[in-house]
Amino acid sequence: MKIAIRRKEITPKEPMYLAGHAIRVHRSEGVLDPLYCTVLYIEGNENVCFVTLDVVMVDEEYSYQMKQIIADQLSIEPNHVFVSFLHNHSGPEFTKLNAFTKTTEYGADPAYLDWVKQVIVETVGECINHTQEVTAYSSCVTIEGYYGNRNSNDLPSDRRVDLIQYRDQQGNPVGGWMNFTCHSTVLGPKNYMLSADLAGAIRQQLEDAYQMTMCAFIGASGDISNRQYRQGNDATELKRMSEGITQQILAQTQWTPVTLEPIHVAPYEYVIDYKRDFDEIRKNIEKTEQELQQDIPFGQRQLLTSGLAIQKNKLQEDPQVHVSLKGAFIEMGDYVLVTVPAELFTKFGLQIKRCLQNKKVLIFGYTDYSIGYMVEEDEYGKNYESMASHLQKGDPEKFADFIVEQLQNQYHE
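Above: the chain's sequence. Below: its structure in token form.
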């Protein structure tokens, strides 16, 4: 197996609207840490390319344009190219329409999108000329005391971090990746500094320790964050949390050889159609507005403001809802990577990760695009995520069952 991993900076050169919070409406005021495009290109019996961007979200149209451009560049199939994002809420707006206003006024700067597109192409181009033969090593650690289920400590959480390291023929690390299941959201809506936030900070610290470039892939983190563990929402807290998590990773890491070939990519598509219940949405809007009139903590106000904006948008949308979830099962030797264009709740992530005995299953969420939260049935009506979800109760369970069935049929379990 050969790999190449390259990175280029995509930090905006001028102030941008920040993504992720409806309550925040001003442009950025500086840079806390640089934002990057990182590309991992793997040559094997099947070639695959992973592009990771330090942004909150990517439009499906933009993503599929990039998949085609990169596929042509590498002479591979578009479904062998994957565009993922950290979902950091202190990066620039990256979708044409703002998620909360559904207007271009607070959406992404078209010139910035075009520039990032060119940066991605250049980064992929560098990979083509720098592939090298590697062997792979893996490690798996568990994090305690820094993040968990943000809706309740009694609900399930996934604190596992999986790491892969590629080494050259002399045994030197040349690249790798981590699969980390937590929202990258230490910095709050009062922050106006551009940042890759938690995932970016951990990635950087691991790169410094291992002396290699890494991709960060976020797992089923729909209801996982550091909300109940934070001591603040600023750069000082980001440093405390990221360093604490990194120290646990480094202390537990034990690299063992792992087989990551042969490679096989199997695309999937799951379609959901239903009719929107406008009466229920109006009731939720009325309830949310009443809560916002009360004296409530800023954090709760922040969530309710975002949820209210999304619910009001739903009233303006087509009553017939059509959702297409397009992803892939990427078999890599001992592993199967499941890409999901959504924010899965932990229940579904764990269900999928535990469904095979002869393969290690990992979830790569926020890949190619995102249809939003996939909330477990019992949690509907209890939290912001169910307010913001574009799916009806019970549909996420059906999707997770579909993924499990596909995996077990494919791997004969």
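The chain has a mean pLDDT of 94.
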